[in-house]
Amino acid sequence: EMFGQLTSSLEAAWSKLKGEEVLTKENIVEPMKDIRRALLEADVSLPVVRRFVQAVSEQAVGVGVIRGVTPDQQLVKIVSDELVKLMGGEVSELVFAKSGPSVILLAGLQGVGKTTVCAKLAFYLKKQGKSCMLVAGDVYRPAAIDQLVILGSLNSFSYSVISLGQVDVPVYTAGTGVKPAEIAKQGLQEAKKKNIDVVIMDTAGRLQIDRTMMDELKEVKQELNPTEVLLVVDAMTGQEAAALVTTFNLEIGITGAILTKLDGDSRGGAALSVKEVSGKPIKLVGRGERMEDLEPFYPDRMAGRILGMGDVLSFVEKAQEVMRVEDAEDLQKKIMSAKYDFNDFLKQTKAIAQMGSMSRIMGMIPGMGKITPAQIREAEKSLILMEAMIEAMTPEEREKPELLAESPVRRKRVAQDSGKTEQQVSQLVSQLFQMRARMKKLMGVMEGGSIPALRD
Ligand code: GDP
């Protein structure tokens, strides 16, 4: 689970407010200590933690009582809002040139995942219909050039666990005898000739920051006049990542950061500190070794995950990739109005199955955060089971699950027609109502309504 440690440390804070009726100056003292400790443990830098705790405390004391909302829930909401703010509030989109090729210049220290990001980014942009070209400027590491060629080209080299095939983009290389700024220039010319939409320029990484690297980057930047200069940083390095973003920004001027290895057991410090410390947003995050594991950085969803509330929005969005758009909107409406029925259940289930990576999706479904591989296999099996039963229902029963809840006779028929037991049918019916309740609750939070208890 991403940032699992932070999530559970924060839980200590909420639990201290159980039984309280309002938030007071006195009763938030202990929870605030927990929050402070949790953030420091997550490797958020001290000045950031201080400002954060200050901001949360001020709001907590001033907050009015809302009927039906407990003080711990109120504190969760305040912390959530502040986390979103801390991470930059809105998602920060990539900027593209109005005409001619857009140039994305990538910088970063060695081993942070820069080369992998090049290929992932090309894959990501191609999915949006943009043609891309990689330019290999990492002249000090011939291996990096080969790696780019392997990642980017048509050839049949297999690369770790790519599941959607090779990235298939042209890679411009000029060998190792040419200066990076020169390679950049040639690469850009080539891209213009070929009418490429986006040029992704990979540059040399070093183990540490040094003068030569910075000067070289400046030269390349001057040559390319890029629309984006992105620093790739490793989430595992915590607040150090934020410090690097600051340094690179002061030295060469960057437009944002890409945070990699968010799937590992990073503690959260980098994700939480980069914007606040450097003033530059995290634009994209890498969450695995596969080509499709690069996504925009959504502060609100990240906050949701940190607080362990699951993430219905991400979930609905993933489902959208597979389902038709109007279906998904319809689904959202249905969730809100508690009309979510077996048809939706089936549609969604099929979509999830199609998406394959169950574990990823599961992490986003409320209440299913802490799921093991064995449970995932179990879930996949139950998909097959569910499908048979839902198909044995009449259209009316699918739309009105209440019919099945009320009638053992109907459940018996469904069981017989699908070759399952009555108990299995009963379980499925109650599962649907649970799902409905859970989603309703969560959508309530997102709409700014009352906040449900954190865990079911
Ligand atoms: P570079 O030296 O910065 O170019 O780094 P590479 O792109 O060669 O990546 C270094 C290692 O990190 C490789 O083993 C990658 O597979 C791995 N890696 C890169 N991005 C991610 C990520 O988001 N998650 C995980 N788990 N591994 C990654």
From TrEMBL:
Highest taxon, organism lineage = Eukaryota
What enzyme class is recorded for this protein? hydrolase
Identify the GO cellular component terms for this protein.
signal recognition particle, endoplasmic reticulum targeting
Give UniProt keywords alphabetically: GTP-binding, Hydrolase, Nucleotide-binding, Ribonucleoprotein, RNA-binding, Signal recognition particle
Annotated region Disordered: the residues are 398-422
Looking at the record, the residues that make up the SRP54-type proteins GTP-binding domain are: 281-294
Q: Does the keyword Nucleotide-binding apply?
A: yes
Which GO BP terms, alphabetically? SRP-dependent cotranslational protein targeting to membrane
Its family? Answer: Belongs to the GTP-binding SRP family. SRP54 subfamily.
Protein name, entry field = signal-recognition-particle GTPase
